[in-house]
Amino acid sequence: MTPQGNRSLTTPGSRQALLATVLIGLALVLLPFAAAEFGNAWVRILAFALLYVMLALGLNIVVGYAGLLDLGYVAFYAVGAYLYALLASPHLAENFEWIAQTFPDGLHSSIWFVIPLSAVVAAGFGVLLGFPVLRLRGDYLAIVTLGFGEIIRIFMNNLNAPANITNGPQGITNIDPISIAGVSLAQPLQIGELSLPSVQLYYYLFLVLTLLVVLVSVRLQSSRVGRAWMAIREDEIAAKAMGINTRNIKLLAFAMGASFGGVSGAMFSAFQGFVSPESFVLMESIVIVAMVVLGGMGNVKGVVLGAVLLYAIPEALRHLAKPIQLQLLGHEYIAPEALRMLLFGLSMVLIMLYRPHGLIPRHHAGGRT
Amino acid sequence: MEILLQQILNGLVLGSVYALIALGYTMVYGILQLINFTHGEVLMVGAMVCMTVVAALHAAFPSLPGPLLLVAAAIIAIPVCMALSAAIERIAYRPLRNAPRLAPLITAIGLSIVLQTLAMLIWGPNPMVFPDLLPTDPIQIGGAFLAPKQLLILVTAAVLMAGLITMVQFSRLGRAMRAVSENPKMAMLMGVNADRVIALTFMIGAALAAVAGLLVAMNYNIVQFTMGFIPGLKAFTAAVLGGIGNIPGAVLGGLLLGVIESLGAGYIGDLTGGFLGSHYQDIFAFAVLIVVLIFRPSGLLGERVADRA
Description:
By secondary structure, chain A is mainly alpha-helical. Chain A contains 15 helices and four strands.
């Protein structure tokens, strides 16, 4: 990749880059209209793809920039999701007398409150995880973070007794949809002749947030903090010798990565209207890691590509696997879900063997990692 | 008092299985400084093969005694797991020996997913009941009871661990393994075929995992394609607790973790006034892992520092 190509995302120097940005932007705005032709399910898939892009970019800060393998990232997603679920559903008021008395209409928090809060709380959890693992590197870190993710999930599964906080395996239902400036995203929006269905509104909301996350990621890359992360990734001892406070900088990576996860989680629970521990299993963490690694750790474009590919291909498979097998083999041998996992695992192995730096490697990928 | 004794006994049974699995992790780590993430899946495959063998033999010769079935299952499962593990080493680890550190970890995770999915396709997604092949009348020890299968688990694990320690300490291969773990380049210069030693290490670990798979299946009477994950994770914790890379450490860590878990699950309800119950059992392993890594990252018997990981 040329240095110009790398910079074009932030400072569109040439007219071409500007044109490309405008075209991509236009395409992203128009995409849901095209998808809606095939049914709103496809718009939903697009919206989810954006959620995964956000998650993958958040994890990319920890794994790609700072080089800390986090296998429990879904825990932060879960924290954000449950936070919104608790603050914007009748669940707490039904189970705790004093909350019902304080908020007679039930808890309904605005997203202007929940988005920053979920970022902050998730960041807090990130630091909580970061502290004990500061001295660990590589595989140890991976296992401890994995354990952390499982602990969070076990608590969510079991915190329904004696005090019913998370409602256990049943999860929390009746979560408020997001409303912005009095416009609820759960209802179709009428603009003149045009009627935008609810999923499409969520798509646009996610698009805005995703672009924000992309922007932050790109800007972070060349910032002082970003350079410090990369220094730690390349050689922690050298980074320390150059005067980088490795402890704080690592904690910052955990916190920032976690806050992206928290915000995506809040969006997820508002979009679904329902959360349960089922959504936050280890496999989700692995999927997000795979997105980052396959796309190209530390490269924003690569990670976006990885997230879109790994989300879109399995979804496409879900619709296509059965007819193709019936056509070619006359019988459905492998269920789409199993096929998805097989391809997933195989692609992780193959890409690592043949392209260990990902599909779009970051600049200067030759160094030690 | 009797309850305490019972809990400790249960913990030792559980812990000896963990120790058996932990040996596989710790041997590989000692040599390659690599966490063999697929180890749990090897255990699962071992248990699945045992299930198939037991079911097939039982269908063909219903009069065969239970212990014989168990032996037959182990005899078939062990080579299967060894071959599988050798293949894993060849495909996922050997080409990446000089790659960035995260690369083998990712291929290992990928292979775990592939193995689990294949197991699901071969043996089906639902849990299968592993029959009770031993008498079920418990044996009384002091005030506590031990089922014959639990006794078998303890004895098998003890024999295998003693055998392994003897082998590593006194045999030619054991000496080669220690040499490679000390300094692979130097060992090669001294005429040790490092690649072969590494492959054999993986295979020995896999043989132990196959037996552990059989023991886990016997203990819980259930096998499923997801069953490798939790024991794998716990055994890893045990290996870290004892000092990863250290063989007696893995045994100690396994037994200790088993007892901690069993006591923890038994008493957490009383200790927290009923707030947390025994379904938090799985948390103990992680809590132990985190505490060990913070306060004594080299483990109880280890000399290495976690920083090297």
